Amino acid sequence: MRPAHPTEQAVGMHYYVSDADGVGGRLREDDEQFCVRELERFETEPIDAPTDAYPHLVFRATLRGWDTNDFAARLSDALGISRERVNWAGTKDKYAVTTQLFSVYGADPEDLPDVDGADLEVLGRAGRNLEFGDLAGNAFTLVVTDPDRPDNAAQITEELAAFGGLEDAPGSEDTAGTSVGVPNFFGQQRFGSRRPITHEVGLEIVRGDWEGAVMAYLGRPTEAEPEGTQEARTFVEETRDWQEALERFPNRLRYERSMLHELAECDGEPGPDDFRAALERVPSNLQRLFVHAAQSYAFNLMLSERLERGLSFDEPVAGDVVCFADTNAPDELELPDTDRLQRVDERRLRSVTRHCERGRAFVTAPLVGTETELADGEQGKIERNVLADLDLGPADFDLPGEFYSSGTRRAILVRTDLDLEVEPLSLSFALPKGSYATVVAREYLKVDPVSLG
Length: 453
Description:
The protein is α+β, with helices and mostly antiparallel strands. The chain is built from 13 helices and 15 strands. It has helices spanning 6-9, 68-79, 152-163, 198-206, 210-218, 227-239, 242-248, 254-264, 272-279, 284-308, 349-357, 377-390, 437-445, and strands at residues 2-3, 15-16, 34-40, 56-64, 86-88, 97-105, 118-126, 135-143, 178-183, 321-325, 336-343, 361-367, 408-411, 413-422, 425-432. Strands 3, 4, 5, 6, 7, 8, 9, 14 and 15 form a nine-stranded mixed beta sheet that branches. The longest helix has 25 residues, at 284-308. The chain starts with a strand and ends in an 8-residue tail after the last helix. Residues 167-175 have low confidence and may be disordered.
């Protein structure tokens, strides 16, 4: 176990669990070298199904150079409808080739526009819209550009196989189909790859500081941004001149500009309700993401502390809360079902350990919300320590509107069968929904997360 890059430590990922030096290099030299395909789990009816019962048009989109939110906005503009009528099961990144499902309320196939960088395949109709989580997982193929030490990939694979709890770790360079395990961290993208502040906004919201949340989003410039953007953020921090800030913020920062429009229209100095209204000017999924990022940051810290204490990730200790496997998962996935939880006491420890060894159960940590019950034992101490340090508790998530969260639990280990190609160096694997490809890739490259995309 070795210290992570400082940027990763800032979002709670304090360690790599493989000790071998990274291969170096970078991802996403070209969009075609980072491919993501959803492992779908959503039923559709034929396209000629009655629209009164099945009003949602469902299609598969292969996107190049499109962030999911941006594509949804482009689609809704072309259709002349509210963006809230466009839904999807998982958010994908701009710098990749991504294949994912979308649903549009009240649309017909002939309504779909031609969009540069988007290939659309109509699948049918549905009685409800797609929701986050309406997929089993994602399959990835990642190409590493200009690796410094490509031969180290085999040793890293061996170490990750051991971390995943395998009795027979690979001992040769033939690593095709090797099962590896990594901590199920939330990746850098959850918080912002170049400007990791989403969790900071969320922490301010959960603490009830609406002004602090808005200023965390509008201000706090980072060196990774263009100089003009840094100057605009510094200006709004120093002056609170919302109207003038609108002149300075570039048009591409449309969410910041939406907030500034709301504040500029206030009669007098804005109060807490005005700052909350400014936050509510951004899309509802982004409002939820703020709070989810705060939960994710706490979760990452809990995993890092568990690593520090030397506790197993693939087997429970007394006091842990485990979830059981989703029996309907695709063959290539270990998919936790966090609706089926069990608290592990000394009496159950041996039997639950056997379930974990066979991939039928998974140790969890909380994404804290109003209904969260913390673990007992040493894991319970970890969870309480992290929340105390952040000055958070489950009741703090009883928030208005989209900011409310009841919480859930999440597996702390993710395992996958990984195919490793040497020339060019590439990694192919599948992960359950909500897990991040870069959390696997970071163990191999061990570079600044900006190089992971």
